[in-house]
Amino acid sequence: MAATRACLIMALAFLFLHGAAAGTAEERRRRQVQSLLRRLNKPPVASIQSPDGDIMDCVHISKQPAFDDPFLKNHTIQMRPSYYLGGLSNKSNITSHPISQTWHQNGKCPENTIPIRRTKEQDVLRSSSVSRYGKKSPKSIPKPIPIHDPEASVTSGHQHAVASSWQGQYYGTKMTINLWHPVTETTQDFSLAQLWITAGSYSGNDLNTIEAGWQVYPAMYGDASTRFFIYWTRDAYQTTGCYNLGCSGFIQTNNQIAIGGSISPYSSYGGSQYEFDILIWKDPQSGNWWLQFGSYLLGYWPSSLFSYLAESASSVMWGGEVFSSNTGQTSTQMGSGHFPGEWFGKAGYIRKIQVVDSSNNLQSPSGLGLIAQWPNCYNVQNGTDNNWGTYIFYGGPGRNANCP
């Protein structure tokens, strides 16, 4: 009897201690989440409730997250670049089918503020960890492998169908991309189309990137909307960098566009195609990397964020990417979910692809290479003509009869 009582006491003690430890871990995570939210959600001048559920906080331009970085505390905001490529300016509207953001239906932010999508507790809790919230994994950039590589694997979870240019030094790029609404297999999957401006390497953990495009990422945003996004890193996605304005880095100067906000309307299969331009270029005087979305000049990545990109890029890429945490092939769609061979009106495309040279001129890229690890799942094709310039069609359905 005594032995039984002793065992019962020990069992109860174990359960109590285990429960206390679990409770402590949960409380610690909650405290970490609240600390992150206090850092990300700056006191707004005004707030706008978007019909899609987002809350856009209009934060004074001098209070944005970029200035949490001690190295940017005394930074003087550059409101305009010193140089526009080929006469480009934020006054021009060069998209034939304008893209809009859902939150615009209910208002806009006042002058001297910027719109920041409010981060909610559930957004952070969906992340694998508080410290990794808003960050990409290290395998988020394709390796320069041939288009038909029998050794390619999907075990990393990331698959790409992209074009790349690796010849020379680059000071920016411009593209026109059509907008789609791909379906993801699970809420943890994502599908995106973007550009990458890169220098450095994975091997040295010193890869620098500047990235921009559109994505569907339910685990990140809590819905399946297509959203405009940006990203940067200077250490191969290890600790630096983040999506959108989720950390110190990008300095926004525009009060019209919410980075991370949903964008529409979507292109339709066999129907209307909606597209927008993205232009990123290095200001020859300040060294900052400026971002233009359609006709909107949004802001810049300070040159001081980077090591290699403080000077120039060594490669530029354009195309699609999908990610799945499941083992094996996913049915998450890339682009329109259809293969590039179906061409205009049915497949995802990026056209008028140009790069910025050392003389700050836009020109067509040379030596374009194609990367598609599993072409029967997701593929890419390229071409050139007088109207579209250099272009690619990309995408696919993922898992199908010819795709394992």
From TrEMBL:
Signal sequence segment: 1-22
Keyword line: Signal
Keyword Calcium appears in the UniProt entry: no
Region feature Disordered, mapped onto this chain: 125-147
Neprosin PEP catalytic domain ranges (all copies): 152-404
Pfam families reported for this sequence: Neprosin, Neprosin_AP
Membrane in keyword set: no
Protein name: Neprosin PEP catalytic domain-containing protein
Organism of provenance: Eragrostis curvula (weeping love grass)
